[in-house]
C-alpha cells in the first residue's frame, strides 16, 4: 500500500501535548508501537492498570479529549482506534478533528500523568488553539469494545489538507488502547529554495514506496523513515561485485520531483545479511504513467541508471556524490535494486527541487 502510518514513536517527535484527564492511564500510551497487553494482577494506587488511555468517569458536564502532534505532517487517509482489553470500560463514542499548526502555546504535560487531570493553566493555554472548531475528520462514531474480534475500529478520512495535529474526543469518557493514523507525509515546499539540497525520497517529505519484489523480513518503506534504522558459491567481477542470477527491488515516488545530487545507502545493523551490491535507477513519470506501471509491476522501459552497481559493506553508511551519478536530469521515481538479496536500513536521496515548468518541458521532450 502507498499509505504510510504517520504515527511514529515518541522519540521521533510524536507526542500527546494535552489531555483533559489521565486518571487511570496516561494518554501517551496511545502512541506505543507495540500491541496493547493485559496484566490481570497489575494495579496502581488509582485503580486497575490498563495499557492505553483511560479517564475517570464523568461527574460534570463535558467529555474528555486530547491533542496529539503527528511525527510526520501530511495527508490523512484513515484511522484505527484500538480498544483492546477495554471491555466494560471502553469509550462508547469517538470523534477526531485535525489542524495544521505553525506555532503552539507553551505546554508542560510531563512524562507520567497517571492520576492527574489538566490544570487551569493548561486549560487556558490549550484554549488558545480553539481546537473545538477544528475540521472534523471522523464524526461522532460508536466504538466496539476491546474483545479480540472487534477491538479494531477503522475509519476512513477524506480530508484534502495537510495535518500536523489531531484532537481525539471520547464521549463522554472511558478507555482507548492505541491510535493509529494512516496517510502520506507532505512537506510545505513553499519554504524550500530550489538551490537547497533536500532528501527527496524521505517519508517526511512525501516519499512513498509503490512496489517491491520481496518484503519477507521488513517492508521497503522502512528505508525512507526517520532517523537511523535499527550461502552459495558465487563469483565476483573485477570490482568485487558478485555475479548472481537474481535480485530484489523496491520502487519509490519522491516527495517532490527533483535533480538528485547525492545518495546515501545505509546498511546499519545488517552485518551478516547485507546485500552484496546495489544500483539505483530513476525516471520521470506522469500520474497516469505511474498507474500503468503499478498495474504492470514496474516493467517499464523508462528506467535509466542513476547510480551504477556499487559494492556494499556490512553495517556501513555508503555515500555517493554527484561525480558518481550518471543521470543529470529531473526525476520523480526511483528503483533500488539489491543483489542478490539482503537488508538495507535507510535510503537517502539528496537533491534540488524541480519547478512545474521544468517538469513539463522534460515530459514534452520524452514524448
UniProtKB/TrEMBL annotation:
Tell me, which GO biological process terms does this entry list? allantoin catabolic process
Q: Which Pfam families match?
A: Allantoicase
Allantoicase domain span: 16-183, 206-353
Q: Which GO molecular function, any one, fits this protein according to its record?
A: allantoicase activity
- The domain of life is Eukaryota
Q: Which InterPro entries match?
A: Allantoicase (IPR005164), Allantoicase_dom (IPR015908), Galactose-bd-like_sf (IPR008979)
Checking HAMAP family in the record gives: Allantoicase (MF_00813)
Tell me which family the UniProt entry assigns to this protein. Answer: Belongs to the allantoicase family.
Q: What is this protein called in UniProt?
A: Allantoate amidinohydrolase
- Kindly list the organism's lineage: Eukaryota, Metazoa, Chordata, Craniata, Vertebrata
Amino acid at each position: 500500500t502507498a499509505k504510510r502510518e504517520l504515527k511514529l514513536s515518541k522519540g521521533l517527535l510524536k507526542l500527546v501535548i494535552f489531555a483533559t484527564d489521565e486518571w487511570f492511564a496516561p494518554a501517551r500510551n496511545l502512541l506505543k508501537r507495540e500491541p496493547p497487553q493485559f496484566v490481570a494482577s497489575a494495579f496502581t494506587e488509582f485503580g486497575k492498570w490498563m495499557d492505553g488511555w483511560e479517564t475517570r468517569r464523568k461527574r460534570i458536564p463535558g467529555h474528555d479529549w486530547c491533542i496529539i502532534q503527528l511525527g510526520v505532517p501530511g495527508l490523512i487517509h484513515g484511522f484505527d482506534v484500538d480498544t483492546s482489553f477495554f471491555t466494560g470500560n471502553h469509550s462508547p463514542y469517538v470523534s477526531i478533528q485535525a489542524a495544521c499548526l505553525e506555532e503552539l502555546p507553551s505546554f508542560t504535560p510531563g512524562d507520567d500523568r497517571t492520576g492527574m487531570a489538566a490544570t487551569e493553566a493548561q486549560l487556558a493555554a490549550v484554549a488558545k488553539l480553539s481546537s473545538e472548531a477544528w475540521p472534523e475528520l471522523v464524526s461522532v462514531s460508536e466504538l466496539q469494545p476491546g474483545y479480540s474480534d472487534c477491538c479494531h475500529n477503522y475509519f476512513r478520512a477524506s480530508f484534502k489538507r495537510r495535518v500536523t495535529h489531531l484532537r481525539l474526543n471520547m464521549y463522554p469518557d472511558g478507555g482507548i488502547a492505541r491510535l493509529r493514523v494512516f496517510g502520506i507525509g507532505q512537506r510545505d515546499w513553499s519554504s524550500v529554495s530550489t538551490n537547497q539540497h533536500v532528501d527527496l525520497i524521505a517519508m517526511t517529505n512525501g516519499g512513498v514506496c509503490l512496489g517491491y519484489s520481496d518484503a519477507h523480513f521488513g517492508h521497503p518503506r522502512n528505508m525512507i523513515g526517520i532517523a537511523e534504522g535499527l550461502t552459495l558459491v558465487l563469483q565476483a567481477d573485477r570490482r568485487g561485485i558478485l555475479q548472481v542470477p537474481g535480485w530484489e527491488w523496491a520502487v519509490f515516488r519522491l516527495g517532490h520531483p527533483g535533480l538528485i545530487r547525492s545518495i546515501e545507502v545505509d546498511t546499519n545493523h545488517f552485518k551478516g545479511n547485507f546485500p552484496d551490491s546495489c544500483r539505483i535507477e530513476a525516471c520521470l513519470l506522469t500520474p497516469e504513467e505511474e498507474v500503468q506501471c503499478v498495474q504492470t509491476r514496474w516493467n517499464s522501459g523508462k528506467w535509466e541508471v542513476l547510480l551504477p552497481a556499487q559494492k556494499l559493506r556490512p553495517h556501513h553508511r555508503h555515500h555517493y556524490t554527484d561525480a558518481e551519478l550518471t543521470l543529470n536530469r529531473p526525476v520523480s521515481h526511483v528503483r533500488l535494486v539489491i543483489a542478490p538479496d539482503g537488508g538495507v536500513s535507510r535510503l537517502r536521496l539528496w537533491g534540488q527541487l524541480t519547478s512545474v515548468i521544468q517538469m513539463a518541458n522534460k515530459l514534452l521532450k520524452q514524448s
